[in-house]
Amino acid sequence: MSSAAHAQEDVDLHHEQRYLATARECLARMRAHVLSLHADAGDPVSQAYLDAALHYRAEALKDDPDTPLFFGRIDHRAHSAAPGTPAEPPAAVYYVGRRHVTDDHGDPVVVDWRADVSRAFYQASAVEPMNLSLRRRFGFTRGLLTAYEDERFDDGHPDHESSRILQDEIERPRVGPMRDIVATIQPDQDVIVRADLGETICVQGAPGTGKTAVGLHRAAYLLYAFRERLKRSGVLVVGPNHAFLGYIKNVLPALGELDVTQQTLDELLGHVRIRGVDAPEVARLKGDARLAEVLRRAVRSHVREPEEGFVLTRGSRRWRIPSYELAEILDELKRRDVRYEAARRMLAQRVAHVVLTRMEQAGESPDDRVQASVARSKPVRELVDLLWPRVKPALVVFRLLSDPAFLAACADGVLTPDEQRLLVWERPPRSAGTARWSLADAALVDEAADLIERTPSLGHVVLDEAQDLSPMQLRAVGRRCSTGSATVLGDIAQGTTAWATGSWPEALAHLGKRGAHVEELTMGYRVPRQIIDFATRLLPHLAPGLAPARSARTSPGALDVHAVAADELAASVVAACRRALADEGSVGLIAADARVPALTEALTRAGLEHRVLGDDEAEEPRLSVVPASLAKGLEFDRVVVVEPAQIVAAEPRGLHRLYVVLTRAVSALTVVHTEPLPEPLAA
């Protein structure tokens, strides 16, 4: 580059630095204005609502000095200009950032990455420049602008070299929770992020393709584009465990979205306290979709046939409904197949309507108020309680699992006798309150609860690691978005549960989103090619139909496999952790769950500060010891994996678990083993 070009670059960088300072001043004035507002609502409830709204707005306008206000700039060419024509002043210039910033006149200083005008920053290409003459990416250090790179479109041949700034941001070491990826969203990811609210999308993502980040950013985009609708109906993120939710907890708040519920599956299915664990074959059966029909029969079995007619005394008159007419009403309600509690309410109205018909036939002139009064009367309520009694979902499931005769009656023709024997508790607890409910039981209770009273639907649900959910669990999540949409994230090859789904069409059908669009992400941007290629040796044994993952990155020395003697294992693991800690970023030591105590003891003896993932600690040291069962969805800059053969042997789908474990590293993977590697890796 010539001295003149260097000088011009310095001038441009100085100009951009001044623009960043101006943007921060504008943001500070926006927040100061919000803090100065004092709304008088007129009543305490409205006042509290307005105060909360102002506080929420002020929190969203807080400036983080360590985070850049913008990370990109796009220049639109004049509409009359065409590629290849002499350069002209841009028709419009937009700086793209995490939030919208305006000046004192309301003109945009920074545009939100989710705004439609920002789409070109992510999707413009040589084939489709989207009317851009320039795309500029900025490099930052602790919030300070340090560099920029330009991609020009005005000559029709933009620079095709990969962006160093983009690569540095993707590879930037991380310690602690997951960061947002607004500065590095790729075109294939952006298409998913900006999909319409009415569309349910399933993302089949190979390791390192950013599927979790895409799902979270889609939630942030939808909250921006459909704020009023989703403010009323709500957004829910469902993750596999608390370690995973702790890892992603900062992403949405960093994007200005503070009001999104994040739950694990057991929290979502909170009807009963989960204290037990089923054997794999029992859990698989309890997760079978056929249990939905068994539960439907169990709930409806509480309806009783009338043994005698009904008499209502009202004033000096008595109104009779014979038993056969009551039976006809019950049959009609059963055929409608409405929710159990809704049918109870309808039964009271049906009985009241028959009484009103009798009154009219006798020459009286009752109105709707009389029907409502009859429906609420004590005799009618007692009749409804007798014929269509109240039912509690936990008690229905408790009876099914503890009463073989009741289960046999409800499962006749649905489950085999052997399957019925497998379901029934060997030692039934004395009551539902003392039962050691499992997660599979909780899904059954949730199904029963929905059969009794409709589960409210949210506007959008993000479901991560969906491949690990049973059909009954998928039905439970699907009920939370029955009138809304969903973003379903997962990888068939990473299915580690005994009931893991075999195909996305099957899973989406159980979710109630049959026919939803499936997007496959195969290009990894975080995990180096050497690590992906090593782990992908397992793929033909896990999911032969999936396309192998690819990586946009290579990293010399990213993979290191050590075979050591058994008496050297602990020392070799400690040494590997020391080498990993010598570089910047987070380190994960992953092993079979049973080996974790021995490893933590070895690290303690060696004086290496660490934590065991899942422990509640205020501080997070750089080194985390991770049980293999909790590794899913997490990322570390460097990973040390101990004894792959033991990880495989620890569970029925151990090879799938190993595939997960081997793909957690962003920069380097070290494998330490004494036992022979599983055959696909040994090759």
What does this 3D model show about the protein?
- By secondary structure, the protein is of the alpha/beta class.
- Strands 3-4-2-1-5-6 form a 6-stranded mixed beta sheet, with helices on both faces.
- Strand 3 and strand 4 form a beta hairpin.
- Helix 25 (about 570-580) crosses helix 26 (about 595-605).
- The longest helix has about 35 residues, at about 5-35.
- The mean pLDDT is about 90.
User: What's the β-strand tally?
Assistant: 22
Question: Which structural category fits the helices and strands?
Answer: alpha/beta
Question: What is the oligomeric state here?
Answer: single chain
Poorly predicted regions: none
* Rg on CA atoms, Å: 31 Å
Helix content: 40-55%
What does the average pLDDT come to?
A: 90
Question: DSSP helix count?
Answer: 29
What is the makeup of the main sheet? 6 strands, mixed
Distance N to C terminus: 48 Å
* Strands ordered across the widest β-sheet: 3-4-2-1-5-6
User: Which of globular, elongated, flat, extended, rod-shaped describes the shape?
Assistant: globular
Strand content: 15-25%
